[in-house]
Amino acid sequence: MKASRKWIFQRVSALVAAPLIIWFLISLISLSTGDYSSVVNFFSKPLFLFLTIILLILGFFNAKIGLGEIFEDYIHDEKIKNVANLLTFLMSIIIPSITIILLLYKF
Predict the structure, then answer these.
(1) Which of 32, 43, 87, 98 lies most in the core, judged by the most C-beta atoms within 10 Å?
(2) For the whole model, what pTM was predicted?
(3) How far is Cα 92 from Cα 61, in angstroms, rounded to an integer?
């Protein structure tokens, strides 16, 4: 991916994720005083589940691009850089996928 496209994707994903992070933190604070059933009720609403899934996808997408840029700047050995990028790519797919499957399965 070209550097300018990466830069735009990272900024747009951060702009979209910022209000979602604020919403999610406020929701977690409000859920902290509740019990298990209040958490289940929160995530059983389709809008909240959808927003949480979007936040997960955007967060890991943004992190993958950011880590890739760090690897480009600070890792000079191509083999190590490629392995680091591959592991980051795999983790940015595996972790959100497992989390989304668990969210959909549980709620």
Answers:
(1) 43
(2) 0.85
(3) 7
